Amino acid sequence: MNRSLYSKLIFEHSRSGRRGTDLPRRPWADAMLHLPAALMRGEAPALPEVDEPTVARHYTNQSTNNFGVDTGFYPLGSCTMKYNPKLSDSLAADPVISRLHPAQPASTVQGALEIYWTLQRALSEIGGMEEFTLNPFAGAHGELTGLMVIHAYHDSREDYSRTRVIVPDSAHGTNPASAHVAGYEVVEVKSLPDGTVDVDDLRSKLDATIAAVMMTNPNTVGMFEKNIPEIAEMVHAAGALLYYDGANLNPMLGVARPGDMGFDVMHINLHKTFSTPHGGGGPGAGPVGVRKGLEEFLPVPRVVKNSDGSFDVIDRCDSSLGRVSAWFGNYTVFIRALAYILSLGAEGVAKVGPLATLNANYVMNALKDLYLLPIPGPCKHEFVFDGLIDKSGGVTTLNVAKRLLDLGFHAPTIYFPLLFHESLMIEPTETESRETLDAFIAAMRQIAGEAAENPEFVKSAPHDTPVVHPDDTQAALTPKLTYKDLQDGI
Amino acid sequence: MRFFPHTPDDIREMLEACGAATLDDLYSDVPESLRLRRAYDLPASLSEPEVREWFEATASKCSPLVCFAGAGAYDHYCPAVIDAITSRSEYLTAYTPYQPEISQGTLQYIFEYQSMMASLTGLDVCNASMYDGATATAEAMIMAVNAAKRKRRVLVSSTINPEVAQVIGTYARYQGIAVEMIPQKDGVTDRAELELMLGAGDVAGVIASTPNYYGILEDFTGWADLIHKAKALFIINSPALPLAVIKPQGEWGADIAVGDAQTLGMPLSYGGPYLGYMVAAKSLMRKLPGRIVGATTDEKGQHVFVLTLQAREQHIRREKATSNICSNQGLMTLRAGMYLSLMGADGLREVNRLSTDCAHELARRLEATGKMRLSHPAQPFLNEFKMTVADPLTTADILDALRREGILGGVAIDEREMIIACTETRTPAQMDKYVSTVKNL
């Protein structure tokens, strides 16, 4: 591509008088003339004036500066960057569904409700839960909704002493943040050297002030929390509920269900486990499932199936936690996830977990002689290296990640979990072929070799990307957040 | 299975490399009592044509109606180029742009979106999106409470969309925030009541909307002074498209602008994905939730973009973060940015005018039927308006009759009152049918 032509901002293509759209002509009188001037806008907004070809070319060229799952291997730990089937995209653009207004009466949207209900049932079976709401917009929104379910449950029992939520120190950052937004104080529980939760530490912190314990299983170092039956028993004996962070559900498909492990409430990231595209940061979806007895606390609107086989929307429910979205959530994401489940079928869904785990163990075993594996396997869907074994050249995890970009791979998740100083978290997913994994292994081994022989070369990576070493400090110290800031030279 | 590249040989050889005999061996740490030793109770796998057939058959159980409904979601036209570009997998299949070297595409379109939304709202700093207009408003409420330290009251105009009010209420309940509704008078917020409620003290923020739930343009003259004198923040919720013609949040002196930007190039799609926007005054920059893209330079001296001010966010600050938001509606900001570029200020004005003209013409003709009248005839409106149905008719009578004609006639507020919305996609023939159906009741 030609960066000198197309690295401009859309504003820089603007020429007064250009238009990118034509609108219909209508016979009606100008009604805006009569609106009170005091309520109307003075100055027009500063927007570009561009024609359609310029818009198409600008955004097409910008897209080539991006790396997606279709571009190459994306081993970003805890993000489950699997292939996104094209059939799902095509179905999500269904011309009937895209024209449905969310306030249409249930009798005119039976098919849309059936899609919602069918996915809800499939997730309940896969999660081992009684019922799901699909309304939450993302994983963190699901966590928040799930914690509100737990809050509503305790409130319904007039148990107001439970003001705290326990979160492991290895948890995703969203866990403590969601607990805080749900109005809870966060209590951290320690991890053992093997990465699993310290059961004794947990026991000492469980009392009548604890509303819930949030767990990720397998956890963020890719280890299965094998004490989970004992933990569930302890948590329930203390009167608290057990929450499952579904960010790491992928390796459990076909193997074990959160409901059977004793979890009461869970969320699923459809944009991880069920292959809907991440879209550069959303839209995703974070459906929330609950065990039997907690359904009444789920948010409205709820979609239900009547005894005559028709579908309905419940908009009011006194025991519900309330409403967490204006409508039904990111609806077309549900279409994609259901298309994926129907494509895989019972047998295919059950293969996802074991194949994802196989891929992760294959990569881990092929690299553990050069990269420090603090917790020996077998891992589940992902694993964490604590940087290179040979750190004498001073090459850090950040350097390794940036060098991978040169070699055509997206970087793994870095500096998370916080348990290790040089965390390099790798999740290959089940949709990667052995050849791709071998190429990645070769690249990682090459980098380890370079780190020993020519560490400066690795430290100065990347060398071949369109952008090299952006100045993050300058960005944060003198924030330029709009085109106007750039023009003003702030 | 078409998504799994593994051959039986691959599996055998890869297991061998891991020192395992079977896939099950990799799960030796999962207690047997937890293992799912049965097939999922799910249908058998379907081929691509079969999946398509299932969805087409299921979707055909829906009847798209000619849409005269609004209530927060509007049937504006989405230019085809938006779908074409948004479906490019470089954008669609990327993750959050944490690696700026290979994410300039995503980062640049978010920066362009932030720039356009700042100008549209007349405020300074826009984040990289919220889930929807309702959650954006709830997060703005939390910002106001955090900024005010110990104050816990938030006043919300009763003319705001009731779904938005419910989401605000849900977030408030679990944070111990006291939400109080400001009464209304003739379809707009009662300013005298607002003054009284502010006078009682302890107010962290005031939330109102324009156009409000009834489509009415509220007059916020003097509000910012009143609210700021009470040391509270002023938050205005507006659907994005009308901001091109009405006095925007910044010009009213608001501190935070929020709302839904579904009107900027997103189809109705039965409620989502839409796009929540949030733009704030510069003084609140470090209190904003979510991701923010900033411009900087790289070693080659190029203007480049990075995620910035990340010390506010959950992956750094955990429970001390400004919000728990992580994944948001990123790709929808590409749609909004493209829509705003294609339209330009003139195009936006024209879309608003066509929609407004249509609404005013429909309101006039519906009043002429004698079956319904404008509920607040003295109040100014754009493309949405509230009607009161004449006795003995009910809103259900009107909406049912229209539905039989393939028309979604609006959204009922109760038995007597309903709101009706128009866009540039409504035609004279559709309006004729609406009016004649009502006339014949």
Identify the CATH homologous superfamily of the largest domain in chain B.
Type I PLP-dependent aspartate aminotransferase-like (Major domain)
Quote the average pLDDT of chain B: 96
Q: Biggest interface and which pair forms it? A: A-B, 192 and 206 residues
Helix content of chain A: 25-40%
Give the biggest sheet of chain B: 7 strands, mixed
How is this structure best summarized?
Chain A is of the alpha/beta class and 490 residues long.
Word description of this protein:
The complex is a heterodimer of chains A (490) and B (441). In chain A, helix 3 (86-92) packs antiparallel against helix 10, helix 4 (110-127) packs parallel to helix 10 (331-367) and helix 10 packs across helix 12 (434-453). Chain A has 15 helices and 12 strands. With 490 residues, chain A is α/β, with parallel strands linked by helices. In chain A, a hairpin with an 8-residue loop joins strand 11 (413-414) and strand 12. Chain A is globular. Chain B is an alpha/beta fold and 441 residues long. Chain B has 2 domains: 66-76 and 345-439, Aspartate Aminotransferase, domain 1 (Alpha-Beta Complex), CATH 3.90.1150.10; 80-338, Type I PLP-dependent aspartate aminotransferase-like (Major domain) (Aspartate Aminotransferase, domain 2). In chain B, helix 9 links the parallel strand 7 (203-209) and strand 8 (233-237). The N and C termini of chain B lie far apart (57 Å). At the A-B interface, helix 2, helix 3, helix 4, helix 5 and helix 6 of A face helix 1, helix 2, helix 3, helix 4 and helix 5 of B.
